[in-house]
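STRUCTURE:
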């Protein structure tokens, strides 16, 4: 339920970096967004369910910080289906954060990509909410190999924690929530990234 400590430390280091370089405007921008994210995280996790819009707002702030820290190294595209009202649909707070973090840290930023893109699609289908988080990064196999070789800064346990959370939510509310992974492949058989799909029964706020 908490932000990854590694991300918090990196954010504070980034702010300090801008201060030391006397880039006060950048430091102020980063600090403002960082404090906004902390505030949003505290508000969102105060309840078991929040409107989808609140989750997306906090997620956008987190992505903005990663864009600042990586010097806009990737593009983010958010699409919400016209049939879905993000103010009327509720989800567990910060349920998407670990997968977005993995997509950015372990997929998009691991090696040069011609046009790194993070896509988040929200839709409703047959009484279920579907949220897809797709990246055109290095793929899960290469990412796991990099972690085994110690090439990444940290190992994320977000998926394990989120899986346990979803099991509890299913037991308590019968929401039939789950997360599925799809390895994206090009026509030539090479990795084209990863798509994570979160699904659960539609729950009105």
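SEQUENCE:
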């Amino acid at each position: 339920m908490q932000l990854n400590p590694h991300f918090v430390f990196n954010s504070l280091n980034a702010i300090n970096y801008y201060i030391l370089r006397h880039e006060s405007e950048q430091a102020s921008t980063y600090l403002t967004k960082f404090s906004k994210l902390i505030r949003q995280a505290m508000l969102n996790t105060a309840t078991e369910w929040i409107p989808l819009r609140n989750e997306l707002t906090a997620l956008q702030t987190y992505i903005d910080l990663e864009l600042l820290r990586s010097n806009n190294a990737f593009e983010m595209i958010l699409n919400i289906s016209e049939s879905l009202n993000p103010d009327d649909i509720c989800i567990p707070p910060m349920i998407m954060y670990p997968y977005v973090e993995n997509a950015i840290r372990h997929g998009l930023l691991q090696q040069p990509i011609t046009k790194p893109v993070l896509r988040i699609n929200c839709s409703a289908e047959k009484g279920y909410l579907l949220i897809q988080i797709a990246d055109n990064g290095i793929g899960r196999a290469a990412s796991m190999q990099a972690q085994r070789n110690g090439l990444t800064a940290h190992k994320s346990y977000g998926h394990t924690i989120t899986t346990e959370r979803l099991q509890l939510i299913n037991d308590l509310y019968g929401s039939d929530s789950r997360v599925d992974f799809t390895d994206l492949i090009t026509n030539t058989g090479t990795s084209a990234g990863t798509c994570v799909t979160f699904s659960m029964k539609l729950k009105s706020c």
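REMARK: The mean pLDDT is 85.
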